[in-house]
């Protein structure tokens, strides 16, 4: 342990951590028996500096969001310059250069046809917005055509994750998404089996037979189909065959169903394409973006849709889309998002992702032979090791910290998704730490 970053005394640290433990909710953490939290003092580049003195190489990009590292001078400057002008103004009746520039960039970079942008606060909210857009579109369309509205449900696949708010939760996997707790209040949608043919495996149409049958049987009730393109992230870092997504597009076209792709985790280069739906060469009707949008600096999300959807909604009796968050188009968030996207292009993100993928492949693939490992999966800057046992989160986390890395496994998965600026030596340290913990019984639960 070194004290080079520490400015807090041990008693100050303990008092903060005590209050945190007693009073502060953490994600998916019990309040009565909380998992330990580590106090962060600062972060710089790929390093997270703990108040206790340890410097950790970040393998998580703060849940997939950091691209260019922490405390980046260009991102800091963008924030400071924007704060010097204004941090926020309401977006009703007012607009500003940072939001306009960001929307222009998003329209230019995303697949063709996505020409209208709705800015919102977080990934989950952007999914709420996407679902509402699809439902309001179908409502307006029925109204304009003087037909009875029947398309009021969504179709999705099992094992998906789209956020924690209610509409988003209703299209998360029914088991891991905790549908049983909220059964009485959740909207009911249709679920197809999860895609089973892996990225890189041989394609067979068998993988879409149940999905096709569900479309055929229920298309009159289905407003939209929502899916995470290529990577089912929270559902276990499963990478599926691009052909599956192509067929989804065809089925949506055939049955007059809108296609929503949730690129919140996969957007901005993570999988080796700027957007994961490019692997299948498809253009969605609606796309959700979040996480990396601001390079991990501030929460911001965007829902993009086609002109046809926007026009239909606007021609309905409501005359507008019924959503308008207070912090819509927040200027600080838009300014830093613009700077982050500029950096992505400047830094040659493709070369960065390719370099990470090559090292992950050499370092992690051999672990597939380990007795504790079920599977190793690598795509772009994502490396996932599926173990045969669940991890003991508290113990494995403690060991990772001792080994100088920040990796947060869940369930049976140890995965890394580092900031794109990580170098070879730092990546090797992450891989070495994983190799070490795989040898340690205390890091796993016997099940
Ligand atoms: N969709 C996907 C695919 C995600 O991975 C996440 C976040 N893990 C969300 C939606 C929700 O985003 P947020 O946590 O910003 O609400």
Automatic annotation (TrEMBL):
Positions of the record's site feature: Participates in the substrate recognition with KAPA and in a stacking interaction with the adenine ring of SAM:
28
The protein's UniProt keywords, in alphabetical order, are: Aminotransferase, Biotin biosynthesis, Cytoplasm, Pyridoxal phosphate, S-adenosyl-L-methionine, Transferase
What metabolic or biological pathway is this protein involved in? Cofactor biosynthesis; biotin biosynthesis; 7,8-diaminononanoate from 8-amino-7-oxononanoate (SAM route): step 1/1
Which enzyme type, at the first EC level?
transferase
Q: Does the keyword Transferase apply?
A: yes
Q: Which cofactor does it need?
A: pyridoxal 5'-phosphate
Carrying N6-(pyridoxal phosphate)lysine, the residues are 291
Q: Which reaction(s) are listed as its catalytic activity?
A: (8S)-8-amino-7-oxononanoate + S-adenosyl-L-methionine = S-adenosyl-4-methylsulfanyl-2-oxobutanoate + (7R,8S)-7,8-diammoniononanoate
Reported EC number(s) for this entry are: 2.6.1.62
What's the subunit arrangement here?
Homodimer.
Q: Which family does it belong to?
A: Belongs to the class-III pyridoxal-phosphate-dependent aminotransferase family. BioA subfamily.
Under which name does UniProt file this protein? Adenosylmethionine-8-amino-7-oxononanoate aminotransferase
Q: What is the lineage of its organism?
A: Bacteria, Pseudomonadati, Pseudomonadota, Gammaproteobacteria, Alteromonadales
* GN (gene name): bioA
